[in-house]
Amino acid sequence: MVGDNMIYSFNFSNIFDKKNGKKLVILGVIMLAIGVYCLTKKSVGIKVFSWGLSIIFLYGAWLSLKSVNELTRYASRIEVRNARLNLLLYFIIALLLLLFPKYVNMLLSTVLGVYLIYKEVLIFLGHKRYGVTRYSIWNVLKLFIGVLLIVSPLYLSKFLVSILSIIIIIFGINFIKNGIRLINERGY
């Protein structure tokens, strides 16, 4: 791609070239270290996870800003106002995740737990109104997860950090393995 679109293009087709062997080993060691550290220190893992989410929300704010700039040319004021509100919402969430990662995760987990309990109670009352008490194991599991999220709000964040840390460790090991293979093929 040529011009301004070059910034949006990610080309990973040459990542496993022979010249990138050392870079892959270094990347693998860094990923392995971050994964193990986040897996052993959950509080740091929650911060890293929150900062990653914050980067995603900042990217969403940037895309929203681009759409606001495009919408101001031809769209109605209501559409532009809604796009600006989305931009503001993304930016505020990103800042909150950067500044208060633990508390934002606790709040989001608690809100998700309340929502799950509310939804399951509505389903139960809806079935009871028709005289049918059909409540499956999946509904009981969702109700239990909702209660668990309210009682232990960082449970979901710690669980996600554990899963993501294991994925980062797997990728790190894979990069180290491929980097060593490329170095041995090159003959250093």
Automatic annotation (TrEMBL):
Highest rank taxon of the organism: Bacteria
Protein name stated in the entry: DUF308 domain-containing protein
Keywords: Membrane, Transmembrane, Transmembrane helix
Organism: Peptostreptococcus canis
Transmembrane segments: 24-42, 48-65, 85-101, 107-125, 137-153, 159-176
